Amino acid sequence: MTDVPALDPDAVLWSEPLDARRDAPLLVLLHGYGSHEHDLGGLIPHLPDAFAFAAVRAPLAPRWPTPGYAWYAIENLDAHDPDLVSSAASRFVEWVDAVAPGRTIGLLGFSQGAVVALQALRLRPERFAFVVNLAGYATPGELAGDEQLAVLRPPVFWGRGSRDEVIPAQLVVHTTHWLPAHSELSGRVYPELAHSVSEQELADVRTFLEKQLAALGQ
């Protein structure tokens, strides 16, 4: 796999000290390409406060002049090596294991962050309780954990805009077939929405998260 640096432990936005409410499930937020940990951190006030939250920063710098951070290179996205995504997801899982061993964890990612979240779930199907996939996709190719994932069928919410022209159409089609076979899928296509998150989508995400809290006994 392509080498990806470890996540910076100091580049994490926490909603509360790590040792606080150790019994609360942790929802980790993964931002998109060219963004940073404070971006999705702005969603925290709109999400159920029964969660503790951590917004992490991706470890790579995008190609100039794009600002912010990236999980993997997006040049020639139509034909990119899936190992790029797996390498980024492996680094993310390493961070999770280091900071929150044994803790119940859900993932919420936007765009590239959603791709990494789904890939992390595929690498470690037993480690994550659920995934919220906003404007992302499932990476083509088979992984060792896919067979177990198809048995476990963890809850996944997939939201995307009908006018999203960022994610290649063939990746959307692939995800449309892949997710129902490997998860308990719910979600929605939002009319007129481009590559972003709407108020309606955020309300649907909150409803999904509240259902996950109930399932976890919170």
From TrEMBL:
It comes from the Bacteria. Keywords: Hydrolase. Residues 21-211 form the Phospholipase/carboxylesterase/thioesterase domain. It holds the Pfam family Abhydrolase_2. This is Esterase. Belongs to the AB hydrolase superfamily. AB hydrolase 2 family. The lineage of its organism: Bacteria, Bacillati, Actinomycetota, Actinomycetes, Micrococcales.
